Write the structure tokens for this entry.
Amino acid sequence: MLLTSNRMEYRFLGPVQAWHAGVEISLGPPRHRAVLAVLLAHVGEIVSVDQLIWALWGEHPPAQAVAMLHVRMSRLRKALSVAPVDPHTTVVTRGAGYVLAAHRDQTDAYQFERLTLAGRRALARGESRTAASVLREGLALWKGQPFGTLADEPFAQTIRARLESLRLDTLEARIEADIQAGLHRDVIPELVELTCEHPLRERLWGHLMLSLVRAGRQGEALQTYQTARQQLVDLMGIEPGPELRDLQAAILHQNVPPAHAEPYQVRHAPLPRPQNDLVGREAELEQLVRLTRLKRLVTVTGPSGVGKSRMILEVANVVGSTFHNGVVLIVLGGLEESDSPASRIAAALGVREPSSMLSPQLISQRLRGAELLLGLDDCEHHLEDVFPIVNELLDKTDGVHVLATGREPLGLPGEQVFRLAGLAVPQPTDVTADGVSRSPSAQLFAAQAGAAGAGFRLTDANAADVARVCRSLGGLPLPISLAASRVRGFDVAHIADRLDAHGALMESHVLFGPFSDYSLPVAIEGSYDSLPGTERRLFRRLAVFDGGFTLEAAQAVCGDEEPVSAPLARLVGASLVSVEGAAEGGCRYRLKEAARAYASRQLWKCGETAWLSSRHAIYFGALAAPPLEDSHGPALRGWAERPDTELDNFRAALRWSMGQGVASDAVSLAGYLSPFWDVPGRLTEARLWLASALALQGPVPPRVRARALLGASWLAIVQDDPAAGMSAAEQAQYLFEELGEPVGATAAVIDQGLAALVMGAHERAEELLRRGLSQAQAMGNAWLEQWSLFFTSLWALDSGRVDEAEALITRATVEQTAAPESQAWLALVRSAVAYGRGELPQAAASLRECIRHFRAMRSPWGLAVAFLVAGQIVGSQGNHHRAVNLSGAAEKLRTSVDIGLWPTFKSWDEEVSSRATKALGPTEFGNARSAGRRLCAAEATERAEAALRWIEARKRPASKPPAEQRALRPVHGVTVMISGACSVRR
């Protein structure tokens, strides 16, 4: 539990609260609680005014937002100062922002993480009862979803997701501790519910199998494995992992592992002690220590000489005692040819095997049960060897944390990158000893020069020269230390003059000796100056790309007559361009941030910025164009899924076109991109681009404007703005008819019918939709015919005419286009029709097909509607909790991408809510709805599909059960328990 003391305590594992001496402090109106929540999300850190305004009001703050924020801060301070708390533990102004000057240990989230870590350590030591008790104490701190009613606000989502993931991990560890303590019978009912709620968590399935077999129920344990396998195959298309398969084999051979595993003992050499104090890194050290304790993999990146090795040594000395097996620090630089990272890591960890037998799997196997910090220094030259080792350690062990250094991240999932920059340098206006000495880089120079035995001290006479040295060396500690050591033979002015004269550290080898690119900007400049003309020209032109590029794009935008492949390869070899990995059709490339900034300046100096930006906009305008120029079907809705990789380039092309005031180009590109942004749910952004483009003055070809208006119409209707959608569709229809393009005109008529349907003008909607259907059939356009049938069937469903809706949807010819979007929506209507007829197995089957398509398309709108139908189906079987969960998840998805709720869909939601409120009561209904809003899309999809599969299988005849039902048939009641838990909890 949180300690009760005279200091302030903050809780957000549930509603946001402030407590003092065991008494909750009244924070006043909800807006004050929202301000405190934002500060708690960044506790101990400065939160800028802009961050706070964005968190509180989003992208459209009120005109007086700054003044309103100051008022709220003042009132929050007053509320928190009611009790006699430490004056420093309050909201204070720092620079252009605010900070909640509290320690993390004053929050319930920190206490939870501390207890979780302590419990896992006890579990690793075999102290199962202690572990279970400590982990239960941590889980008891949870009083609801993190941040309470503010949980779905953007500022809270990241920390909330991390905490909820950690809570589930802690719950698994607590169950494991109970099993080891001999409480396997007690945890079986809980595990049955948890495996039903989280069918993809293999660790939970393993706990259930182990508990059953230790309870003497081997047959049920084996059947549980088959159920788990069926869930994994059905939901993800994958087989169980090796640990679950190994447990099945052990049960079959009656060789179940013992309850207690002997803790791993690692022998390692003591850490070296730094010879001098760390200067100017106190804040970074504190942050890195915190990350190392919380994260499994932290990689410290930065240019050579920035102090990465020293930082991880300091971290290791600080946190070493908190890991049961201590710290192992391994330097991977300077390996001999006969040596390898695997052999050096294995030797340091005490894995004594011949080199030919070493593998990542062997190393991780030997470290199972260990709790240690593994430091890997200088990884940049051995990424291919280090990657699989670290990946295996993170995947197969629980207590091993990895702290690595390198110029680039390792690139593993879950990696926390900590970018180390140079020390702060004196400002040009700092010319006195007092002013210069406030800079950490100058403090380091003075300390190292004094230690060199030259009797150096910082004075007004040499302060300006010291500042010049620190600025020339970019604040990088190693070159500053080397420069300071030279004061025995040179005065500071001479050192500064030499650096200024050469202008690049790489050219100063006469003074310092040849060492690598310690200053990244200076190194880039030196590398650029040494490039041949072709590479230099290509390098600066590549700055026009935003977010990376392909070889084809580089050739089209930056190339002249000669191919760019050879000079691009040389730029990659010179570390000026990085390769991001394979993309469709080849690799993808990117300029590093510092390199792109330098290249942009060179591009501007050469006067090529405008010319290149224009070519860039033309290229990506053509790339955005649909494959059939005169098509108004899938080209405008559901047309070929576009990868997110080019999103930044599309935005750059739009910004350039609009900035130049070229209306035709801007409207064309914005119109082409409207379906691209529709699929991932970037609807608001798409509408803003379209509105801005259509408002530009200047000539626009009628076809281009009509296409953009059609896109604007569809996006407005999706966002429940039918009036704007109707207006845009009417304008588009007029232009298409003037152009003699019946396909576009018909699409516009259908959009008008849909807008009328959303506005509740049913007679007008029916007339327009039937006209659109008639025109689509006359042209033989199957795609438009499908959409008109789909919308007309929605109209019939909304009017309660199920038979008519079924007749309409039966006429749809999905096979003619096979567009996933068409298949998804038609499957959804088939499910709604089957539900209306009481044919629940067919409704569940159709809806599972619908969800599969929407999940593949990454369509949040489609999934939100599918969850509403799933809630109807599940709720009709009495599973009201699960039905409300799904409606809450649908609401979260819909609002997260600013999508409106059409009348038909609203009636479905109201049906679920009305039925559940009567069955559960208002309080339980509200709790279940809130729980659903906490689900991410993947979790909600899992729950929906599992519940639908259960309904589909349960209704089939028992005489000839199909394969899917056979996999769920009960053996000694276990699967019955699982299915029953699903029905109750879902």
User: Anything to note?
Assistant: The longest helix spans residues 154-180.
